[in-house]
Hints:
Elements: E1 9-10, E2 16-20, E3 23-28, E4 31-36, E5 41-46, E6 49-54, H1 59-80, E7 83-90, E8 95-99, E9 102-106, E10 113-116, E11 121-126, E12 130-135, H2 138-149, E13 161-164
Antiparallel strand pairs: 1-6, 2-3, 3-4, 5-6, 7-12, 7-13, 8-9, 9-10, 11-12
Amino acid sequence: MSRIGKLPIKIPTDVDISFNGADITVKGKFGTLQDTIPDGLVIEKIEDSLKVKLIKESRATRALSGLYRTLVNNMVTGVSEQFKITLNLQGVGYRAAVQGKNLVLNLGYSHPVNMLIPDGISVEVVKNTTINLVGCDKAALGLFAANVRSWRPPEPYKGKGIIYEGEIVKRKAGKSGKK
Length: 179
């Protein structure tokens, strides 16, 4: 059983955290994030760290303590450092460009794919085939990256598609012909 929920969360000096009942607000140099803590859990501030405490001891609240400890830690990390996801476009003619608030992808379809960039996420295109996504909300950043990738997930025969940086695409042999 994991003990993640019992670990303290270190608070950097440039991060301000405020509690209002079950609501928690984290402010930093890259933005402000909010979340609601469920019943059965409470967050305590001890000097320069936070700790998630159980009010009711049950299996569900122990599981939620680990989850919400990680969510609050991601909020603190996001507003102080930001998260970054890099996507690589692999395929002949695959290109990306940013036009205003839209990400325009040419992925081999008969039309370009236009995606609206959500608030709080910044997109940078490097060399037409590398997309850097940066934001302070880890969940929103991952969701947008998954939506971009869903237009062309990597295929196992030629390896073409939108690939996360560091991802290994398992390749298949394909047809072998008559013997």
